[in-house]
## 1
Amino acid sequence: SSLPMAPRADNQQIRARIRQSEMYIKDRSAAAESNWNTSDNSGQSGMYGVVGKILSVLEELDRYVFDKMDPNTNCLDVLGAKIWGPPQPGQGVTSQDEAVVTILCEWAVTNNRSGEHRAFVAAKLLELRQSELLSPDEEEEKEEDFFVTGTPVFQELLFKFLENEAPYLTCPNPGLKKQHEVANLILLFHELMAHDVFSHDSYMCSLISRGDLTNPMIILPVSSSSGKDDNAAAGLADTSDDRINDELGALAKQISETNKLDDSGGTDPGDGFGGGSGTGNNSGTGGGGSTHGEVWRYNRHWQFTYNFPIPFQQDDSSNHDINQRHVLLYGYGRGREESSKSCKKISKEILKLFSKRFSIDVNEGGKIKKHHKSEFIFSEVVQKFQDLSYFDQHFVTGQCGQSVIEMVQNFHSCAAAYLPVTEHVSFLFDLAGQALNIQCLLDWCIQLLKELPLVESQLIERGSVLTRTYTTGLALYIVGVLRRYHSVLILTDSMVKSAWESLVKISYRHSNVPQESPRHDGSGVRRPPPNLDCNSAEWCIMGYLFDLAAACPSLLKSSDKYPVLKRLFNQSPDLAMSQYNTSDQFRDMVNPYIMSPRRKVDPLLVRYLHEKPEHQYTLVCCVMSAVINGQLDTDRLNDLAILCCELTAQCSTLSAEWLGALYSLCCADKQIYSSLHAQVNLKDFSFHAPLGVFVCILIARQCFSLQSIVLSVITRALVNPWNNGDNEGQSDEESEAGARLALHLLLKLFKTVECFQPSFYSIASPRSVPVSAHDTGIKFSCDRHLLAATHANISSGIEVGAIIAVLKAMLLLGESAPRTSTDHIPNFLSSGFNEDDLATMTASARDGVSLGDLAFITLKQICSQEWVRDICLQVPDDLGKQGYLLDKLLPPQQTLSLLRLICHTNKDDNSAPPPNNKSKHYETQKVIKNMIRDLDEWSLRASIIDIKLMYRLESKNCEVGSWLEDVSQCIVESFKLGENDTSLNDNDAVVDDEPEPKRRKLDSGRSEAKSAGGKRRFGPIWMISHLIKSLKFLQTKILQVSGRVLETGNWSRGAKSRISVGHQPFLQLVLTCLRELESLNDGKGRPSEDREQVREQLLQSLHEQLSNFLCFTPEEKVYNYEDPTSRKSMQDALQLRFSLLGGMFESITTNFQSITDWSTLLVQLVVRGVVDLTNNSDLFCTVLDMLTSLIHSSLVIDRENGGGSGGGGGGERVEENRRHYMQLVKKIKKEIGDKQNQSIKYLRQLLPFPKAMEEVIVTEQFGLVPDSKGVKVRGFNCDKKQGLQVSEKQKISPWDILEGFKNPA
């Protein structure tokens, strides 16, 4: 079509026809290259390709370790390359990119995954792709200019996500799940704006042009009556078209004027603007604001505009966006003034904490003035702060954070003598965390860490009592924040390096770390370690440095500190089975510290601890007795725990003593720590709460690891009561009491801690607060952060094996111990987790619940924790290994129940035993059908490991074959259900095998988009092929069952059910199985004979099915239905089978017999009018191209048999191929016969050119006669007459004459 043409009038039409033919050729060539198994839904841009891309992206995200950063193997560049694929310059945004953008946004927002890091990862991945698309090598400078000035590449897709998928408030009291998702959305789009992937200005322009924000929000004064507020809110719903045009001009004018405001009104957003009311903190809603309860009444984009924080609010560059937002929301007048007042008031109130009056005056001995608690009521400030929008919360925290940094800088530059109180800084950190102002929070922490060494130098110079304690204490709070947001921190390499350098300076400035191992000498006998001059804060900082180095190996190249850190932290203490007499002298020395835990530790006390193990034993007994029997309030309990952390930091062998004492209590072992047992009544459960808080703080400050106490203490204690071994020196009651204590400690350690506890902050003298009055009891925010970080630390976190071990111990304890409320174990474990129901069961008192019930309740609460699910599913295949969930002590049903508890897929009671009148076959079908019904992109990985575990459990029995048959049958039968069929009842409709006719057509219109209520964008059957791709053991059986189902559902006039190409997922399932079997050729996964047998069976089945279409005679005219639905059904049935045939096309071409059989069948389909240019014409090209490939393949030399190596063998092979080809041509000619029509004309083109023979009369010389041998000789009459005589008739080809093959003479 690009070649030059002679001038003529109809050149354009001719070129158009040529281009159309070119496209036609390309389409047919592409279909042949893909083996004719493509369709509208199976290509990269089709449904199957989109679903496949989404699932592959999710798999990569789930497999990626976000707690670690290795530039070679585990970094965002590597992850981005796997997710996006290689970019092609100038290609623009493809359908695959659109799928990735959508799933990244959903992954960052959904409650089915956890972690704030998701928003940052998604933003960085989108930024990476945007830079690749906009900066090709050839025109880098030009494209960079475009990148700076143009609309972001993914702006339209992100707007589409906000329009269709994003969660927003639809009621005044949304559920916790919706609150979290709204908060996740706000964090995500804040990061997208910060990374220039989403433009707030373009978003506002789009909303203005659409008229989504035509009503400015009316802020009423606090004194306004509720009636006026209601009337104002009622007027907000008026968004009629009549007002839009009138208001657009006014809005544009207001924005223009606002952008020209002087600095006092427009530069500082806090001065002129602010959110007077909001959706509340971290939850999307809350109470207290004057119009706060009305926010949910607005449309989604109004809510997004109201809450989305604009990054870098302190910069002048963001003034336009801020002004535009405030005019659209509040108008230009009273509303703006009211919002400004509320925002400025809260900022001023929080900044009061950092004024001279509330700060530390270093010149006056570093003391903090006591104030009346009414001067600053933390709970009220927090409530007001939570009533702000997220936008205003970001502004308030940003302003306060900058003030703290300036205050610290002024001190070390000698411009001031005041330092902020560490607890007040911690309060600000907590507020910033609640506001999701995470990036700013991390920036403050890094900046403060840089300033702290200078502050320490200034304190030393002034000779202050705050030397060492202030900087390390504030650094500990910062380390708590860095641990809390560790996965976000390590995304930025410069921040990691800066934090490392500053923390090394702070922790090593005063501490004296010994250069030899403090544990053992060569004989293995423990000896007193050298004195470790290190306070608890420095110990925690060094512990974080060790974890940071393990998470970021690149740090090791620039530092020599790691070997020392590794020696200190890369070991777990053994239990100290100590049994000594307590030292009265040392007890008298310790008791004053127990009474006043805030006293400074005397170095002599530490020296005594090092000298004699009896002193350590005495200390542990005295402290534990005080914790258990002392009726301590929250403050004193926390202080005592921190004192013990200080001592343990300087005497590391105390770690083993703490573990030994806890083991003695939980296992009721009186052979060790008998002095402690003498002072403790194990049957008194009132000490569980204070002891739990005490242990939490010890673990948070790294006195010993979570792994150590779980394996060495708690698991043993849970195994103890149901173990039938001889337990000397303990009664059953004491064993049960110890197990109850172990369950309480486990729940305390594993349950997610809410890091923000405003009630613990106070500027007045601390008041006595009973421990039981608070859920956590852990006073300091840094300790709560550090405890939460122990769940998933790279180097010191708990391993999957330990978690599984303790969960199995709880399950076995619940089974063996007496129960009252949970008689049916599988039913109880398989039901969903409900906090309210469990709270009701334990409402009376925990000692009123039987031990078995308590074990099951604790098991369900722990399994409901997101971090437990995430760490167990990080490498899901490990769960099915022997020794993990596969345990001879666990019955199969309980093993499956435990897995579903961990995966949070236990809501359908899948593992409940079948009714008495139902068989195991019924149970298997019910489980699989429920699983398929609920299958989505988030539950796919759990479903894979679930079926794998079921298979491994069944493999121990002899009935694994019938189980595979049942599962395969359920999977194949699921394709009878309509796509996106959400109208099925819980169990009855799912178990019923009857198809849902035409359900797909009714739902097709609604399946285009996923509604805000969480409706799936595609049905579960689209994911079954991806499910089976990971289940190798099912693939052979799936193919066998598919062949049988295709035979029974083959197209005919009387068939009740038809499997057709309308179910493209079914086609993809079979093709996936075929591809997976083919990929095993190079491996040893399956015997070759078995694989080939399955393929041959399926091929034979397809041959029979297509042969059934030949049974109709032309007179019957069954293929010429007047009903278009019937005609379409027949075409779909044929299309499905031809697609499957294409998937196995290479198997057909391996031998001449199959080539002949299939070629004959294809010719018969055309000759008999089943597939031709008038009937099922869409398939005619497919049949024709398949036949062409088969005919040509018969002439291809088989290289594996030496045909291409030359010599005589190759020649013989060529001749054999030629002979088979001629036989095939002969057979096809026979089938075609003398029939003539347009379709058969195309078939004849595939045959060799026919020889157009012409009959000629041959003459010879007159008088020639044959002799006895048939040779012509001259006869007697030759001389009598001259001339020629007729000899014979011959058939000759004109081609032979032209080419000289035959002499016409």
## 2
Amino acid sequence: MLPRTASATRTPHLNRLVSAGSRRVLPRCPPSLGVRGSLAATPRLLSTITTQQPSPLKRQPAPRATVGFERHLATVLDEPAQAATAPLYELRSFSPQAPLTVRDHTKVYAKQRVNYHGIPGDVNEMYLVFEACLQVGRLERAAQVLKRLANLDVMPPADYLDLFNQYLDAKVSQLLQEPDVDKADDIHKAFESMISDGREFPVGGETVALLLKASLTATDADTMQRYVARYLSLLPKQTALETVFNTEILTYEELTKVAELCPKYNMPDNVDPETFAQQQQQQQHQQQQQQQQHQQQQETVVDQSEGTVEPLLTSGESSAVPQVLGTPQKGFGLQFVKRTISMFKDIPDGFDISTLPTSQQREIQSKLERDCVDASLARWREENESLQKMGLNTSLDTPSLNSRLYQWQKDLESRLRDMLVEVEKSEMVGKKNKDDLDRCIYGPFIRQSNPERLAAVTIISTLSSLAMGGAHKGSTIASLITHIAKFAEEDIRVQKAEALISKRNLRKTKSKQHNPRSVLRFKNSTASTKYGDVAESNNLDVVMEDEAWTTTIRTKVGAALLSALLDTAKITLVREDPSTKTLVTQNQPAFSHVMQLRKGKKIGTIIPNKAVVELLVREPVPDFLARHLPMVTPPDPWVSFESGAYLETKTPVLRLKNGEREQRLYTEAAIARGDMDQVFKGLDVLGKTGWKINSPVFKVMLDVWNSGKQIANIPPLNPVFDLPPEPASTEDPTVKRAWLKDIKAIENERSGLHSQRCFMNFQLEIARAYRDQTFYFPHNVDFRGRAYPIPPYLNHMGADHVRGLMLFAKGKPLGESGLRWLKVHLANVYGFDKASLQERQDFADENIENIRDSVNNPLNGNQWWLQAEDPWQCLATCFELAAALELEDPTKYVSHLPVHQDGTCNGLQHYAALGGDTWGAQQVNLVPGDRPADVYSAVAKLVIKGIEEDLAKGNEFAKAMDGKITRKVVKQTVMTNVYGVTYVGAKKQVLKQIEAAYPNIGAESGIEPALIASYVTQHIFKAMSTMFKGAHDIQNWLGEIGGRVCRALTPEQLDEFERSERSPHGDGTTTGENITLAGNPKKSSAHKNDEILNNFQSTIIWTTPLRMPVVQPYRKHGTKTVSTCMQDLVMTIPERSDPVNRRKQLQAFPPNFIHSLDASHMILSALHCDELGLTFAAVHDSFWTHASDVDSMNAVIRDAFIRIHSEDVIGRLAAEFQARYKNSLYLAKIETGTKLAQEIQRWRVKNKLGPRKELLLEKERQELLRSSNPEDVERGKKIISPASLYEQYSSAQDLTIPEDLKEVTIGTVTGDEEKKVRRGREMDEEGEVDGSEEAVEQEDGMQEDEMLGDESGEMDSNPGLDALRNTNHFALSQTRAKASISAGGKQKHHLDIWLPLTFPPIPEKGDFDVRSLKDSTYFFS
């Protein structure tokens, strides 16, 4: 059977474009190095070519599908006309009843085994191998991939044809460069075997044009005529030549030749040969010029970059700024930093790159981004050559790791070249063994780079991973190879991007290649399939597959590179023989592959040689630092998901962890609709703020650093510790154990101080390089919308010493207001921030002499600034204020210092506004007052009151803490409670403060400090719930609706479940697109319900006030065993279909919701400040501007907060959830023993349906009740189900068991106190957890009933704490084990039933009016 023909201009319907077999608009894969650019583009696949020149052929207008597809989706929203002209800082209205929903229709194909050719069985991996093979010119392997795809028959014909066209394009390009009869025959045979073999493919103009081009190379006229006729017959006779002509693949002469060979096919009448020939000549000439220009740029790129700066250089003059003292015997990392930023060293002091023309600024910035790997190679080479010139053997034992790295790099480079030879042999061998199959998988990917760069990347990433994780501990193979593969992939991607940029202009008249793994495609779920139009809808079907390597490919590539490094990296040791006293030289492996026992499992681990450890522990090694330095030119505006910020380094606008696919899907969809415009503009405002280094502060900091002393937060160079004497061996073993624990603590502290100093070393080196420059911090956001600067080492979100170095590049005169705010700022950073503004101003005036002494003699004077809470920021303010006061009129001083306005526990401010808590609002300064309120002191007072009440009752814990509660004890717990700290985490925070303030409290009271901390934590939580009752109710409500969503099935999931139940397997087993359900008759109905939920749980999604969709990423990911050349590895495989981690979803939802509100507040404030001409920066809830503009910024901050909370934020969220999860069913719990439960149990005994059929019955009932047909509605009413019984009994009240939310609400103690303290003590002994996130991780493995028990009773009568006093830890663990065993047989006290998803009513809001904060002086201050 011949392939079926396509229309003259193939334009697939939009609904097919977004169906299975996802597509992406990508540049065509370059055939191979040296092969000219792609011959074919497919301008008729999706869009119409737009050129500046008149076309010689009058083409037909694009069909409606194409036009609808290309228009910006934001235009389809039904919004007020004035929205287009509204200021950016105004909230844009949107309907919560029609939220953005994205349905992922990407097919997940059944995975097959690797075949005997070494072609993988996973469709995504096959595509990646295919793409890589085209990239490196391995067309035989690409053909084998196509053949396997055809045999598996998993792709729609149109998508398979698109892949074949890419392969065909590369083959024809190769044929034209090296004409050969066999190559031409291969093309014709490939078409006949892959396309014309009985299957139907929509062959169009591109395929035929490429085949014709190959046919015209035939030397035999009859053969040529036969092939031409054969291929033209695939197209409609009347339009065949016109269709071929439209592809722009054939020249006019070739088209004429084709017409002569087959006269029955007429040339188009409207072809103008002269115009066409002229266009082609112009294009060819333009391409030649661009090729020459690109070649010249490649040859002179370094010279050009250096030439930009060269006229500025001073002849032989060195900088007057002292060098930063490096840590003795520095290793690789610091030198890498210095090499990367070495381009700054030749710039004379005081010269700012920002004074150069924009083009030169961008040129320098591009060089910075490109320099990372090249900087490493150059540094290693230079040091190696330097040592050789000195007559030193670089392979012998030297104190520097740099001296060895060049030899490692050369040896590894040689090994990688051998590896490529082995890959080629493995691809050619007939019968492949396991190693051959592995090489066939990873071979195409390592070919995409060159051995020199791959070797450097492998060494950099390995050392970086080991140093960051602790070199003496080693690193697991799984994490190490993932780290190596990640950076190898990134480097290859950069190289590919550079190649595409160089060729982009050569093909700029050709449209982008249609690719089956295309970027987002959107369509309206109700759009007409006839036209494939994009209708006005918020419901988008999406198919997306990103270009990232799969886990299997990353694992195999990383293992191959790591294995090569282990084989080649050697270290030469020179040691004295203890007996002969002679020096002995020995070569040893630099790294060893060992198996270690961790938590009962053997884990493959890479352990560095002790000599390498000694070098690595001295300093952490940075990873690819150069691509993430501050920018020397304003960042590019954000325009798409990965387009913005850095000039050449592709950076996503959204910070994603591996596998967070769903958040990206929603973000891409929101970008396409224009919903991310305000976020993009806000990030642009933050990014365009110019910065410079505070030179006076930097000079002082450099003096302190080079002295090696511990001053402020600068750690000492050589810390001194008093080691406790080692106990005698005859003493009690517990004494020895305590001594070892103390020694370990000292070593950990020493190591921690050294790590801090090494990290600061990087920061100071970067600060020194940028000391005279104007620089910028590009920003992106996390999944909640919170903005972060992308440069990780030096940015304004750093510690006190970094913030003290930051000045705005642009200055503004102080004025009267600015001078006052500068004084207030001094008091704030000093720690005198609880007083009134006037008192703070007076504080500065009273300390003028101290300020001047700090400026004139910062290190040898009275050092007043060192007593400040933030000493370096205090010193910076002293310099600024002293300089202003030196002027006759201080108000005219041009100030560059950022002045901060900080929120008062900003999370509680949002909660108080949401809940309408008047009392709570007063504590967080939402209500005007003469003095600033202090919520921490208020909570401390309530705790003290509670302890006094207990003391009157003779409570032992109250006696122990009487008079010991301070603001500092409660502050951290109050601050983090609103952001979801667990009880265990809060107890640890309190314990840390108690032990620091009262180190002997245990001995004095006879009670363990951990139990005292538990007691205090209970009181803190109780005080919080009392003070913020409305906020407590809001958190409770958020947790309840979130819990229901996590136990719900959406209509799409219900349909999928029904299809699985209707499958031929008969037991519920299916191998559908995204799930695999397996029925098991041995499981209880409760287990079966859990099984259904585990396959279908929905994540929590909401929309911020800025219309950004937030998707919580917490899921339970599956694993896969990947065989590598080193060992089999069990790797995590994230999928969107993975079940959600219900516990994390619930615990994170309330704090993440609040974070999304404070992020919106900050972005709105940034946009408004920019509109007013203010310079703006922010650290979450701390907003910065010039002193003279603080009053204006304060008005903006208050206005933005009022605008957000003047709307019904909670009501909008409820409406969005009702719309987003409409027609869903959720698994509710009903108390056993009630009349309803008894009725349900009788119904189940009678009907014996089982959980699966019960769910399907309820699905059918709900569909009938929603029907527009009255008869169907009546049928639905007659169906009896557990849900219908529930409706009869719950007409007056909700009979479901509410979610156990004690872990997620303000001021709630979770679970039985005795159980919590036991777990806390065990964690303390094991050295586990220190904070809320870790506590969540530790508790993940526990059963929910164990974690979320009933709240303990009154604290004065709770026997749990008293029972734990002086308890043996071993006895505790035995008791817990027995309790766990006995609990295993307990019967649950609830029934599970499926109910329509509804949400509880919104809690009643208090009487606080948010508009009153407009007059609150201390809201932000």
